[in-house]
Automatic annotation (TrEMBL):
Keywords: Glycosyltransferase, Transferase
Organism expressing this protein natively: Kineococcus radiotolerans (strain ATCC BAA-149 / DSM 14245 / SRS30216)
Highest taxon of source: Bacteria
Database matches in PANTHER family: D-INOSITOL 3-PHOSPHATE GLYCOSYLTRANSFERASE, GLYCOSYLTRANSFERASE
Alphabetical list of CDD domains matching this protein: AdoMet_MTases (cd02440)
Protein name: Glycosyl transferase group 1
UniProt cross-references to InterPro entries, sorted A to Z: Methyltransf_11 (IPR013216), SAM-dependent_MTases_sf (IPR029063)
Gene3D superfamilies: Glycogen Phosphorylase B, Vaccinia Virus protein VP39
GO MF annotation, one: S-adenosylmethionine-dependent methyltransferase activity
Amino acid sequence: MSGPATPAGFPRVVVVGPAHPAKGGTAVHTTELARHLSADAEVKLVSWARQYPALLYPGEPGVPGGVPEVAEFTPTVRPLAWDSPASWVRTGRRVAAADLVVLTHVVPLQVPALLGVLAGLRSARSAARTVVVAHNVLPHEPRPGDALLVRRLLTSVDGVVVHSQEQAALAHAHGARRVVVADLPPHLPGGPRIDAPAGSRVPRDGGVRLLSLGVVRDYKGVDLLLEALREVHQRGFDARLTVAGELWGEAGRRVRELAGAPGLRGHVELREGYVPAAELPALLAAHDALVLPYRSATASQNAVLAFAHGLPVVATRVGTFPAQVRDGVDGVLVEPGDVAALAAGVLRLADGGLERLREGVQPPDLEEPWDRYLGALEEAARGGTAAAPPGGRLLAVAKRGAEHALWARVGVQRRVGEQLGARRLAAAPERRPVPSGVPRTGVLHDAAEVADAVAQARRLRLPAHPDAPKNWDALGAVAAVLTLADDGSRRARVLDAGSARYSPVLPWLRLYGFGAERGALAGINLEFGATVHRDGVEFRRGDVTDTGLPDASLDAVTCMSVIEHGVPVAAFLAETARILRPGGVLALSTDYDQDPPDTTGVTAYGAPVRIFSPADLRDLVATAAALGLELVGELTDEVLAHPERPVHWTRTGLDYTFVLLTFVRR
């Protein structure tokens, strides 16, 4: 095993979630999570005596026969009941001595109970860090009020762990302060693979035997698979299907109807009811491939389960399947919601395709993914946000206060300036002098240049950044936009990539008269939640490597001290080149040193700290040039030299400087 065995600094951990006798993957995951955490911590699993009201759960809540799907974890207690609020708060008080409390979120119905546990922790003055493991941020079939409950939960904890980027976006949109994406680690029920060749129990006619496994619900698309199977038969390929699982509601009725329809009758076996873990190895061994025809998905371990038993997988490109299934190697990937595509995917098993895919199936690693998962859990527990650096809740409150004060000043100052300019009592915003003294491409040399930048910001009546060196590159970026991207109309569309709502570039551009058109000035950051507007400037959640913006839609992109925090530089440059119009400008600053200090083991915002060297910068410029971004200026040894290290990062103890690079799109 490699990586952290358990989250460091949390010797006492409580995991709250479903466990035996509850059935299903979430109960198994919760149990295995507690077991892996217990390698180096004192762990208690707190579960449910009664999870759901019977009227709202159409199936049997417990495993058939009461046989555990995996070995039970000790100690496990079951004090929680959906209909007993007193049990929720009492549980929180009883676990208040823990260092870390992990709350498993499955459905909004259970959110009030989890909030009750958190209320109990607060009433007992607990110092525990709190993390939600969200298997589904929102249910596949949401109901009124679900979003409100989920927002309340996610805003009440230090961090959230999700299992896909799509779920991360949803968590951010519902107010989560810290979201960490981690692959769902394997937690496979049942025993080992049966050593008989897969398909050995297929009828003698040699037809390929397909398996659909799990509860039948609309989002899982089993009805689409049945329709595709009819097309497959019309093409002369003999494929048989077993649907093994509970058939719920209208989706189950539809599957029964299709299975008995002409053209499928006799080719589909409905094995209704929950499949106990002990029966899984034999069931999988009796089939040739597992099919996952989902319309939508979050995270699933069914593909990993199939691989563990030697079966290839036919799956749609949703949720975690594209990351788990290697198309053409150990499975087939098709587009979701498309019967013809699904039929074509099954037909790829013909003419030796099944045998080739089976040869490509590798048994999954069952341990290392857990090491990574526990590391992600620790990262979430530490809290913090890339838009407001970690430092505790007081620092976060202080930064929010600074943000509101900054934008209040900008709004008042802008409106007063416009009124005075209209009356010719003062220069109009567009006539404000352009910042000077910072080269389009260059290095911050010394403390004197820092002082000059602060003084110039004040002379220009621009709200100075409290971190003095950041005024230097902000002045240079604003000057680049004014002189290279704007035609004097102040209509340029500018994106601040990796923005923070308290950083200076966008408010300064607003004071120069940009942003009159809503959305013309925008900032994106993966740590932002819901979209907010500050004096006409839009701040929204967004990925600097995948903005979703149209080609050639921007006049300028600024990116201040962002790429050193784990950003894939080539992907960022490629995306920037795509969204900039010809002649558009990129103003990019980052941490730099002509002889970088050793940053081994130093992390920030969940990524290793990086200080760029001269060679790193030249590689960056070469990559940019290949993408159509031409550097303004040169990176000579003289340009890259600096007599002092005027930037000090207290949190890491590092001293270095800044570099500003300006590019023009060809």
